[in-house]
Amino acid sequence: MLIALPPTERRVIALMDAQQRELRALYNDTEARTEPFDPAILSGEGGVLLAVEEGPALLACGALKRLDPGTAEIKRMYTVPQARGRGLGGQVLRGLTEWGRAQGYARLVLGTGDQQAAALALYEGAGFTRIPNYGYYVGVENSLCYALALKPG
User: Fold this and answer.
1) Where in this chain does the record put each N-acetyltransferase domain (predicted)?
2) pLDDT tens, position by position, 21-55
3) Which of 50, 52, 108, 133 could covalently link to 60 via disulfide, CB atoms 3.0 to 4.6 Å apart?
C-alpha cells in the first residue's frame, strides 16, 4: 500500500540509509563525497514522502521537495533489493507525479547516476527527459539530471 509518511520516521530513515550505502558502494564513494541531505527538508511546504508499506516493513520510498513555486525535485527514490522487479518504484513515481500535479507544480526534476540502469529506465519510461545538471549535480561527472513537464490535472 502506498502511504505518505513523515520523512523522519525511523523506517524511512532506514530506507534512506540503505540507499546511501548502496550508492556509495556502486560509485566507490565515501560518505563525505555524497550529497549532503537532511530528511527534515522533505517536511517543508509542498513536500511529501511516499512509501510502499507491506505489513510492518517499508519496501520502497520516494519524495518530492519544493524547489520553487513551479518546480519540485524527486529525492530518495529507493526499493529494497528483495522487492525489486515488482513495479514498486513505478508505483512510487506515479504517486509522486500525481501529488505534484495536485500541488500545481509545472515540472518535476531529479538527479540520478549513470550506473543506475533500472532507475534510468524507470524515469525515461515515465516520460522524463535529460536536462543540464542543476544545483548540487553541476560538475558531477557521473550524475544525470531529468525533468518532466506536468500539466494541470
Assistant:
1) 11-151
2) 998 888 887 655 566 667 777 878 889 999 999 99
3) 52
* d(C-alpha 75, C-alpha 16), whole Å: 10
3-class state of residue 141 by DSSP: coil
Q: Which residue has the higher pLDDT, 31 or 127?
A: 127
Residue 91 belongs to a domain with what CATH number? 3.40.630.30
Q: Report the side by side order of strands in the sheet with 107-113.
A: 2-4, 48-54, 57-68, 71-79, 107-113, 143-149, 129-131
Q: Which amino acid is at 133?
A: N
> For residue 78, what are the domain limits?
2-149
- Give the DSSP letter string of 1-54: -EEE--TTSHHHHHHHHHHHHHHHHHTT--GGGSPP--GGGGGSTT-EEEEEEE
Helical (H) or strand (E) element with 112? strand 107-113
